[in-house]
Amino acid sequence: MTLPEGMLWRMLRQRPDGLKFRYQHPIGRCIVDFYCAAAKLVIEIDGEAHSLGDQAEHDRRRDYWLKNQGFRILRFGAVDVMKELESVVAAILLACRR
C-alpha cells in the first residue's frame, strides 16, 4: 500500500456515511484500488508511474472496460490525496450519493 492509499484507506475503512469500501478489490480482469459496491464506484489513486510510458493508455483501456461493465470511476492523483485528503473523501462521498 502506498502512502496516499494508506491515508485514504484510513478514512474509508471507517465507513463514512455508512458506506463500505474495499481495498484492492478484484473486478473481472482488474484489481481496483478502492471499491464501493453500494454505489458501484471504483476509486483509483494515480501516482507518478501513471504518467510514464504507455500507462496512460493502459488506464484508458481499463476505465473503458470498467465503464462498459457498469462501474463508475473516480481517479485522483496521489499528490492530491496527500495534500487535500478531506476534499478527496468529500468528492468520493458525493459521487456515492449520486
Description of the structure:
Strands 1-2-3-4 form a four-stranded mixed beta sheet, with helices on both faces. The mean pLDDT is 91. The chain contains four helices and four strands, in the order αβββαβαα. It is of the alpha+beta class and 98 residues long. The protein has a single domain (3-97), classed as VSR Endonuclease (Endonuclease, Chain A), CATH 3.40.960.
Topology:
Blueprint: H1 3-12, E1 22-27, E2 30-36, E3 41-46, H2 55-68, E4 72-77, H3 78-83, H4 85-97
Parallel strand pairs: 3-4
Antiparallel strand pairs: 1-2, 2-3
Number of domains: 1
The CATH class: Alpha Beta
Q: Just name the CATH architecture.
A: 3-Layer(aba) Sandwich
CATH superfamily, by name, is VSR Endonuclease
Q: Indicate the percent of residues in helices.
A: 40-55%
How much of the polypeptide forms β-strand, as a percent range?
25-35%
**Total helix count?**
4
Main sheet summary = 4 strands, mixed
Shape: globular
Q: For the record, give the distance between the C-alpha atoms at the N and C termini, rounded to a whole number.
A: 28 Å
Order of helices and strands: HEEEHEHH
Q: For the largest sheet, list the strands in their spatial order.
A: 1-2-3-4
| Mean pLDDT metric | 91
Q: Under CATH, the topology is which? A: Endonuclease, Chain A
Query: Segments where pLDDT lies below 50 for 5+ residues?
Result: none
Q: Report the count of strand segments.
A: 4
**What class would the helix/strand composition place it in?**
alpha+beta
In angstroms, what is the radius of gyration?
A: 13 Å
